């Protein structure tokens, strides 16, 4: 449910704001960065309002919005060449990627704090799924950060087109790792719940 809400937000935002994002991306970048910082700070507190906690803050802190925006970025390139949606979104795909990367920080930073607290707890015993999650996240960040930097037009203009294109192909690995990340997080929980129901 959370992801469906996020997907509606991501698709609607991308379609409506595409021209403005392309022409003046800086205000969008600043807004995304401020929003991410606010989410990270608010996530450290217990908010009594259940609607805010589970359906507004969670959209960002749990990565639903970020994942939805990455889906828009990914599938835009797969749309038919003459598609109206493709013609609207492709020109701002680089800017949309940067915007999405900044939104992703709200999820990454929030859970980095959670995981760090667990690691600092002397009684914490890292399980296989925890180690796998950390490994996948590190790989995701190692791919996302360089790709985001290269999405800036000034950086791209200083690179050889062939080099830029070859490096950009790692985006396919990035998108694949997002699905692996989700699988690693929820598969053990699904198996555990399945065993409980059988019992």
Question: Which tags fit this structure?
Answer:
10 helices, single chain, mainly alpha, 82% helix, 0% strand, 199 residues
Mind explaining what this structure looks like?
The mean pLDDT is 88. This protein has 199 residues and is mainly alpha-helical. The protein is built from ten helices and no strands. α1 packs antiparallel against α2. The two termini are 27 Å apart. The radius of gyration is 18 Å and the shape is globular.
Calculate the mean pLDDT score and round it: 88
Report the strand count. Answer: 0
The radius of gyration is 18 Å
Order of helices and strands: HHHHHHHHHH
Low-confidence stretches: none
How helix-rich are the residues, as a percent range? over 70%
Q: Count the helices. How many?
A: 10
- C-alpha end-to-end distance: 27 Å
Structural class from helices and strands? mainly alpha
Summarize the biggest pleated sheet: none
In short:
This protein is mainly α. It has helices at residues 2-23, 25-42, 50-61, 64-76, 84-89, 93-120, 128-150, 153-157, 161-168, 170-198.
């Amino acid at each position: 449910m959370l992801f469906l809400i996020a997907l509606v937000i991501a698709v609607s935002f991308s379609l409506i704001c595409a021209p403005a994002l392309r022409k003046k991306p800086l205000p969008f970048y600043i807004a995304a960065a401020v929003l991410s910082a606010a989410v990270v700070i608010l996530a450290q507190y217990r908010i009594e309002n259940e609607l805010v906690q589970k359906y507004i803050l969670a959209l960002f802190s749990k990565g639903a919005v970020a994942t939805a925006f990455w889906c828009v970025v990914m599938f835009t390139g797969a749309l038919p060449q003459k598609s109206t949606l493709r013609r609207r979104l492709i020109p701002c795909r680089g800017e949309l990627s940067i915007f999405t990367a900044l939104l992703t920080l709200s999820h990454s930073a929030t859970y980095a704090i959670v995981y760090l607290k667990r690691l600092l707890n002397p009684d914490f015993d890292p399980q296989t799924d925890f180690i796998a999650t950390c490994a996948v996240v590190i790989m995701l960040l190692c791919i996302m950060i360089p790709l985001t930097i290269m999405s800036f037009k000034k950086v791209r203009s200083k690179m050889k087109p062939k080099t830029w294109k070859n490096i950009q192909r790692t985006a396919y690995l990035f998108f694949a790792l997002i699905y692996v990340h989700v699988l690693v997080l929820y598969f053990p929980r699904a198996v555990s719940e399945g065993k409980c129901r059988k019992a």
